[in-house]
Amino acid sequence: TQKMIDQAKAVMRKNDRGLYTVPTQGLYPFQWNWDSALSALGFAHFDEPRAWTEIETLFAHQWEDGMLPHIIFHQPDDGYFPGPDVWATGRAVPTTGITQPPVAGFAVRRIFDRARDKALAVEKARALLPQIHAWHQWFFANRDPQGTGLVAIIHPWESGRDNSVDWDAAFERVPTEGVEPFTRRDTSHANPEHRPTDEQYKRYIWLVQKFRSLGWDNSKLHDASPFQIVDPGFNAILMRSCADLADLAESLGETQIADQSRAMADKGIAAMETLWSDAHGQYLCFDRSIGALVDSPSIGGILAAFAPIPQARARAISERIKVLAESCTYLVPSHDPTAPEFDALRYWRGPIWLIVNYMISDGLEFAGQTAVADRINRDCLRLIEQGGFAEYYGPIGAEPCGGDTFTWTAAMVIEILS
Ligand code: DGY
């Protein structure tokens, strides 16, 4: 146990660039939004000031409108595509122009609650509180123009689940005409069989060019995007962070932020009911551009357990995971192994991601579904034993996939073992 913790710390130290960490060397040489927030949880166990720094650096690059960008390009690096020139967001320190799952509210509350240095925690949390709150408000202002209580992503990279089966049908409506020629760099760092396809990359870039042509004006992007998906996993992270921020704000005596955060969380959790599918026993994505649920049994609808959803839903998700366990060796696969689109080793079309496992397990544990929560945590450690600190793993053979010595995988191991 201690040996595994020490190995995990070594991975985090290796990827530490002082004020931020890279997810892994080579493949991802900058600061990624949700990677950083989740990695801070790992740092908090052995270096609290460093954990706070990770999140502070992230928010130092928040946009004036409240958006927290998905990548911060702290230093030039030719090994990544698409780099700052493609995004052209015009920031002094370049960033992308889209966002990522808003897990920072959850992370800050957790680090605050367990802090050994309470004075430092109060100081840091007090400063971050309005910044995180502004990001949450940004979501509802810019990604929920009709006031449904749920927000849409406008690019698959925002979900973090880049090539999920969930986006396949919607991606048919994203054109590829006019995409400037490019050379991928990810496939020279990782096995191309484990990565998204060229066809998907063209569509990723078409969307970037489209938003760039609108000057990255967030008041225009949602309505102009042919890709508008309400992802239950993404929304669950937002609702959980809003609820956690409400609690944190209360303990810091910030009642206005507390009340506003609570209201956003309550409304969103109520609205999540519209995404529930009895047929699948889980939540589904909703394709806002055509007004229909997406018939795709992916992990997005299971990750929803991270939010304080109704007990009956958490119980049903637990049952759903037990069914998934019948068709794989390790939990939780990012897509149903019995579905025709399942691809055991290809990024988000089958493989297991420890950060997602951690969030599902955390939510289920809170809901009293401890047996399934424990099984998920045990599987995480079995995967590390089999495959080291990989980016993701095959759910049947435990194959290590994508990048290696991966920061947030290491952070999750420290979380689980500490
Ligand atoms: C990538 O480059 O693969 C990232 O997932 C985009 O954020």
Automatic annotation (TrEMBL):
Keyword Hydrolase: yes
Keywords, comma-separated and alphabetical: Glycosidase, Hydrolase
Record GO terms (molecular function): Glc3Man9GlcNAc2 oligosaccharide glucosidase activity
GO biological process: oligosaccharide metabolic process; protein N-linked glycosylation
Gene3D superfamilies reported for this sequence: 1.50.10.10
Name of the molecule in the record: Mannosylglycerate hydrolase MGH1-like glycoside hydrolase domain-containing protein
UniProt similarity note: Belongs to the glycosyl hydrolase 63 family.
Alphabetical list of InterPro entries matching this protein: 6-hairpin_glycosidase_sf, 6hp_glycosidase-like_sf, Glycoside_hydrolase_63, MGH1-like_GH
Mannosylglycerate hydrolase MGH1-like glycoside hydrolase domain location: 28-409
